[in-house]
Design brief:
Layout: E1 3-8, H1 14-29, E2 34-39, H2 47-54, E3 79-82, H3 85-90, E4 99-102, H4 113-135
Helix pairs in contact: 1-4, 2-4
Length: about 150
């Protein structure tokens, strides 16, 4: 069972959405995976993240922002994926068996709901591809390949 950590700065938006999307993708593929998200700092889950995820049937309303040290066995992940440049720079060193990936996404904070939806949909495409590769026993994508600008 692969263990995946999605890391962002505040664990308030992108990493929370990615966690929900990766869990849904794993469930749809029948992949038994443990998926967590965390931030380099803890704050609060943003209301717009909860809103746009609810639109596609993923409930983040009970989620809380957490740091790496709030997740179980924080040094025993098969995959650590950073979703912002700040988290990539602050990401601690993981053991040699951990695969690191960096998929930088635009921060939707302060933007319109359309911007939030665009980032959600980009996260969905990326993490569906990520989980599909895990399910097929292939290496996950090495970088974020779908990089159209996010408007709004």
């Amino acid at each position: 069972m692969p263990r995946v950590l999605i890391l962002c700065t505040h664990n308030s938006a992108r990493s929370q959405m990615a966690e929900g999307l990766a869990r849904r993708a794993a469930q749809r593929q029948g992949l038994d995976a443990e998926v967590f998200s965390a931030g380099t700092e803890a704050t609060a889950v943003k209301a717009n993240a909860v809103t746009v995820m609810a639109e596609i049937g993923i409930d983040l309303s009970a989620n809380t922002s957490k740091t790496l040290f709030d997740v179980p066995d924080p040094w025993k992940f098969d995959y650590v994926v950073t979703v912002c440049d700040s988290a990539a720079e602050a990401c601690p060193t993981y053991p040699a068996g951990t695969t690191l990936r960096h998929y930088p996404f635009v921060d939707p904070s302060g933007g319109s709901l359309e911007r939030w939806r665009a980032v959600r949909d980009q996260l969905d495409a990326q993490f569906t591809s990520f989980v599909r590769a895990l399910g097929a026993g292939e290496p996950p994508p090495g970088s974020y390949t779908d990089a159209p600008p996010v408007g709004g």
